[in-house]
Amino acid sequence: MLNRARCHIKLPIIIATLVFVSLLATIYILKPKETKSANFTSAKATLGTSRFSYLAQINTGTSGSSNITIETSGNPDKDVDHLFPGDTVCFTNTEYLGCSDDTAYTVADTEGVDGDQFTISSPLASSLGSNDIVIATASGSLAIAVTLVNDVPNGGDMLITIPMADSVDGNDSFPDFNTTRATSGFDLNSIAVGDISVATATSGTCVNGDWTATETITEGSGSTDHTIRVDRSGSSCEADATTVTITIDSDPGIINPAPINAARTQGAADEYTINVKSRDNTDATIDESDVMVAPVEAVLVSATVEETLTFQVCGVKTDLSTQEAACFSTPASICGEAAALDVATYAFAVPFGAISTAESFLDAAQYMEISTNADSGYAVTIGQSDQMGKDGVTCTGNPTDPVATNCIPDNPGDANLDYNFSDDCDTASVNGLCFSQDNGPEAGAPTFAVKYDVQTNECDGSPTFCARSAADLEAPETPEAIISATTPVASHDAFVCWRLSIDGTQPAGYYYNKVKYIATPVF
Amino acid sequence: MKLNKYIKLIALISVISLGYVLINRITKAQSVSLAITPPIYEILIAPGKEATQSYLLENNGNDTLISVRLVPFSSSDSYGNVKLDDSLNQEQQLALNWFSLEKPSIDFNEQLSLPGGSSIEYLLRISPYASAPEGDYYFTLLFETDSSGLGAGRGSAVETKIGSNILLTVSEDGNPLKIAKIHKFKAPKLIDSFGSLVYDVEITNDGTAFFKPQGDITVAPTFGGIQLLRLTPYNILASTKRVIPCFTDEAPVQCRFQKQFLFGIYKAKLRFQIDDIPRYYETETQTIAFPFVLILTIAIFFTALKVIQKISRKQKISKDNR
């Protein structure tokens, strides 16, 4: 009886409990748990270039002229302080219909601090209107990296909101601006899906390939901002120290705004807020953060480097080493002479000394090095006051008879060796003075007029001493370039190899002349 | 007697001193290393006006004697090299009088001692007379070392000189006559597709003042994008011509269309102006690029293939006949 009564009491309780639990379960199923929203553990945005775009109004710019003057009020840029040599500028009208004459120009120079003029490296093809504007876009990459607090479910996404200037075309590849930071913003510059990439670093499970490669890029409307949405498809992304980095690459890159068109302090950054959030499949926010980017005027660091021409001449010892300290490192050979030279030289002299053996070559060398940052390069010429005369006697013209003239004539080589024509100077019985050249130890490669082992003019196929003579200023002959270059050079060097043999009948005496090396820039 | 002794002693000391001095003038290990800034100076000046230009000469070698002088120069070739010429014509002789050294207070050709590791500033004043004829005057300011006291022994004494070019235009109104002529704008008419399309540009200065050409070569191919080859703004002296290369990254380079494979018609237009004068000089040329070598290779290949096939067929027939 008692048991039956107990049973009667228990049943409704059980049923009521079951109904309650079912109700709770139904409520739970019908109304899913609200997503917990939080800030990302960390969030940052990095601009590839933090420089403002440049935008100023033209005052004057005449066809054929390279000088441009800008207006100094009423525009984002009111001077040329943040326009730099090398910047590419586009002149356009306020309709922003491409660059004038479809031409972009390069800034050659600006008129310093608070100036209102700049020059371009080539003249304007047509005159500019006074309402035209000059633009130098600063575009680059944008990387946004966030560390998740909560998982991003399959079907969720990452949404980035980039500020766009109000009431403009925010995707016309021209920099935008407005009167306040809140209403100014970035131009999308026609970035496409292929310009965006996603990278994932995680301690848990978050397959990077499940971030959809076809991101949704939505240009702002003029009252709304730009958005980029990266969908999650295939699996969820576990928030286990997971950092997701979304990068817009630099080609073409988004375009930074010009400075706001209002009173502002140059050098102070304009801060723009980029919002980034993770969302679930109902677009409910999971994690969210605002990150700041701050374009600012660039700073021109400048110094004037003067053009200089430097020329050094050194002597060479018989063991091929430098006569003067720290002039050049000893090479393995000079003009094919690996063992030793016969005569040591100095910067000021090639002293062949007392010559007792006729019909035999005496070899000597000098070293020269030249540097210049002049645009057109340099040339080193060589000339001699006269051919070598006994006690300085004048060797008129081009003497050939050593006895009659008391001169050691220039060596004619195989026949036609001259100051402007190469020939072999390799037969000791053919007498006189000649010179050739060899590379120096430096890496530079000057243009040689003659090299001992390179066939030029009438030298043999594989010459052992292809040579020339120095121009005889008494003749008169014009000094010829022996090394030259047409570009700025750091260290061009060369050995000048002197070779002398005398005839057996050469009258005894003291023979000399003066050799002149002249280094001049190319004009 | 005593006096004689003193005289002999003084004479002996004098001889020893002289000998010492002479011996020490014989060449020792001395390097010559000179640097001049700037290496070129371009100036346009009105007669009766005055300008000064500072030059810094550095001696990075040993102590030396230095002198400076002005030497007229002319263009020695079409590449901007100078030809120094000591023989002055009447105009150059006159123009030399317009130059003077304001600093240091020495005359041209006068020597001064420049210790090793030191530098000296030369301030050159240029003041053409009010009656100075208009025109261009080209000089090199030549700094010369002196080796005359250094015995070369039997051989050659060596003098080292370093120069800085002065391009001087004298003009009353600042607008000297500048006329250019395109001497050469050349490219191959026909080229293989694997060849390189190079443009030769040579410009003549038919005016009375030097100038720099400012412009480019626009190459428009049948297929692909237009390329702009910028001319190097080299100086072209009056009454001379100069080969003008192109330039990229601030360095002169061959004017070459940058493409590995060429095909079709390449229309090239040379267009430049003189300095900032808005008058353009233009000329055009065109090149046809075709893969001759490739076609020839293919033709040879197929001909050879056919010949081989023919031979092997013949061999087969003769084998079968046997």
Q: Topology, pairings included?
A:
The complex is a heterodimer of chains A (523) and B (322).
Chain A: H1 2-30, E1 42-47, E2 54-61, E3 67-70, E4 88-92, E5 104-110, E6 117-120, E7 133-136, E8 139-140, E9 142-147, E10 157-162, E11 196-201, E12 216-218, E13 226-231, E14 243-248, E15 254-255, E16 272-279, E17 285-293, E18 309-315, E19 349-351, E20 362-372, E21 378-384, E22 388-390, H2 402-405, E23 407-408, E24 423-424, E25 432-439, E26 447-448, E27 466-467, E28 471-472, E29 480-485, E30 489-501, E31 511-521
Chain B: H1 2-25, E1 32-37, E2 40-45, E3 51-59, E4 64-75, E5 82-84, H2 90-96, E6 99-103, E7 112-114, E8 118-126, E9 135-145, E10 155-170, E11 180-186, E12 190-192, E13 198-205, E14 213-221, E15 227-230, E16 241-243, E17 246-248, E18 251-253, E19 255-256, E20 264-274, E21 280-290, H3 292-321
Parallel strand pairs in B: 2-10, 12-21
Antiparallel strand pairs in B: 1-3, 3-8, 4-5, 4-7, 4-9, 6-8, 9-10, 11-13, 13-16, 13-19, 14-15, 14-20, 17-18, 20-21
Explain what you see.
The complex is a heterodimer of chains A (523) and B (322). Chain A is 6% helix and 33% strand. With 523 residues, chain A is mostly beta strands. Chain A folds into three domains: 83 residues, Elongation Factor Tu (Ef-tu), domain 3; 155 residues, Immunoglobulin-like (Sandwich); 213 residues. In chain A, the strands form seven sheets. In chain A, strands 21, 22, 23, 26, 28, 29 and 31 form a seven-stranded mixed beta sheet that branches. In chain A, strands 2-3-6-5-4-7 form a six-stranded antiparallel β-barrel. Chain A has a five-stranded antiparallel beta sheet with strand order 12-13-10-16-17, with no helix packed on it. In chain A, strand 16 and strand 17 form a beta hairpin. Chain A is elongated, with a radius of gyration of 41 Å. Chain A starts with a helix and ends with a strand. About 1% of the residues of chain A have low confidence. With 322 residues, chain B is α+β, with helices and mostly antiparallel strands. Chain B is 19% helix and 45% strand. Chain B is elongated and about 130 Å long. About 4% of the residues of chain B have low confidence. Classes of the chains: A mainly beta (523), B alpha+beta (322). At the A-B interface, strand 18, strand 19, strand 21 and strand 31 of A face strand 1, strand 5, strand 9, strand 10 and strand 14 of B.
